[in-house]
Amino acid sequence: MNENYFPIEFDETGSSFTITNSGTAPAPCKVTFIPKVDFYLLTIEGLTAEPLTISGVKANDVVVIDGESRTVEVNDTNALSRYNAWEFPKLQPGINVIKINNGA
């Protein structure tokens, strides 16, 4: 996958978008999100089998979830304790629909 996606910015209505993995196997991915409003429970669907969540995300925080290094950072600070998921993000082969919302 040679495509470059910029940080994903969104407001209180959340967001939905697609990313294509043109390979034939699941690929760990690194995603960066920047919410424009506070999210009590940022919920992201489509990167793991079950929705993943990160608690206490504030407006303009830079949230980085790295499926390759298995790290979670908010504003360059370890935020693994705020991450709730059984796995780290990966893109399945083909088109992946990603949905972001406030799970509160």
Verbal overview:
This protein has a single domain (8-102), classed as Jelly Rolls (Sandwich). It has strands spanning 8-10, 15-21, 27-28, 30-35, 39-45, 52-57, 63-66, 71-74, 77-78, 83-84, 90-91, 94-102. Helices cover 0% and strands 52% of the residues. The strands form 3 sheets. Strands 1-4-7-8-9 form a 5-stranded mixed sheet, with no helix packed on it. It has a 5-stranded antiparallel sheet with strand order 2-12-5-6-10, with no helix packed on it. The protein has a two-stranded antiparallel sheet with strand order 3-11. It contains no helices and 12 strands.
Task: Give a quick summary of the entry.
The protein is 0% helix and 52% strand. It has no helices and twelve strands.
Principal-axis shape equals: globular
Estimated radius of gyration: 13 Å
Q: What is the typical, i.e. mean, pLDDT?
A: 87
Order of helices and strands: EEEEEEEEEEEE
Instruction: Characterize the largest beta sheet: strand count, sense, and whether it forms a barrel.
Output: 5 strands, mixed
**Count of helix runs:** 0
Number of strands: 12
The low-pLDDT segments are: none
Furnish the topology, listing elements before pairings:
Elements: E1 8-10, E2 15-21, E3 27-28, E4 30-35, E5 39-45, E6 52-57, E7 63-66, E8 71-74, E9 77-78, E10 83-84, E11 90-91, E12 94-102
